[in-house]
Amino acid sequence: MHSPLLDAGRAVGTAPARQRSNGRVHLRAGPASAGGATRILDLSEAGPSRLRFPRGEGALEAVLVNTAGGVACGDTFSIRLDLEPEADLVLTTTAAEKIYRSDGPVSHIENRLGLRAGARLAWLPQETILFDQARIRRSFEADLDLGASLLAVEIVVFGRAARNERITAGLFHDSWRVRRAGRLVYADNLLLEGPISDLLARPAIGGGACACATLLDVSDGSEARLDKARAILADSNQSGIEAAASAWNGHLVVRALAHRVGPLRTLTARFLTFYRGLPMPRVWQS
Fold first, then answer.
1. Checking DSSP bridges between strand 60-66 and strand 128-130, what pairing results, if any?
2. Predicted model pTM
3. pLDDT tens digits, residue range 192-220?
4. How is the chain split into domains, by residue range?
5. Distance (Å, rounded) from C-alpha 85 to C-alpha 70?
């Protein structure tokens, strides 16, 4: 029997109201004294978002954990990092982040970074996997003082490879904004909406790729490392991957398109290892 109470406050054809996840972390880190090791100065966590700090040598390592197991329709997640002068931080994730299908609502991921003079951040999350009908808007904003260094990488996979999944309908909007000393030095937008797998099949868009990677180095001398970046890419050649590096305006960018995520992940890890001269975080090796 139909009850009008079931339809109260809900338009016909719209998704039902749900309790959504709202994950937030805010970390402020820096050395306790000049020349000292980077320490946690302040940390707040909310919802399913947590940071864990494995002990090790060198930079402070923060591992982001999503206890919800993924991002569902209408969820909101935000990360805020404030690095004091001379802080040295590596941020990564325990596993690939999954963006589940949505029946309408758009999920949001917001990353906000502030780096003071001499601070160094390696932003090295594992890949993000979009399920069919996923709807996500993601923003990455960084404000750097002069002398700060940011190395950031993001891998996005369109569909679950193990299922040969295609994205017949979905939304992926990725926005990057990086400022140095208050001046915008890097801006990038990627918007794919509709049958994303079909869009990526077009030669002018993805050439049949199902995964992409972006690496950004904003630091003193990054433009001078262009030859090194291109040499590493040449030595790390993987079948089914197109990758190239360019440098301008005080930063270096590497972009890659791949038909399979496994080789792209291998290429990314190899490139970062040689480019940084440091091993990847242990979670990448598990």
1. unpaired
2. 0.91
3. 999 999 999 999 999 999 999 999 999 99
4. 90-277
5. 33
